[in-house]
Write a structure and sequence with these properties.
Layout (H helix, E strand, L loop, with lengths): L3 E9 L5 E11 L2 E9 L3 H8 L8
């Protein structure tokens, strides 16, 4: 599949609570598609970062 990118966002729940959402995105030819979504669960992203498999881009 190649490189996988993670786009992190914060959504606002109906009760006003901020909820983190992470979209895992992969390239397919000349297009991109979401291959995984994590809602209110940053553990998979932190595990990738702790293992050195992901890093933050500014």
């Amino acid at each position: 599949m190649g490189d996988v990118f993670v786009m992190c966002a914060t959504l606002l729940a109906e009760d006003g609570r901020k909820v983190p959402v992470d979209y895992y995105i992969a390239r397919a030819g000349d297009r991109f598609g979401v291959v995984r979504t994590e809602i209110d669960n940053r553990a998979p992203l932190h595990a990738l970062m702790d293992a050195g498999q992901a890093r933050r881009l500014d």
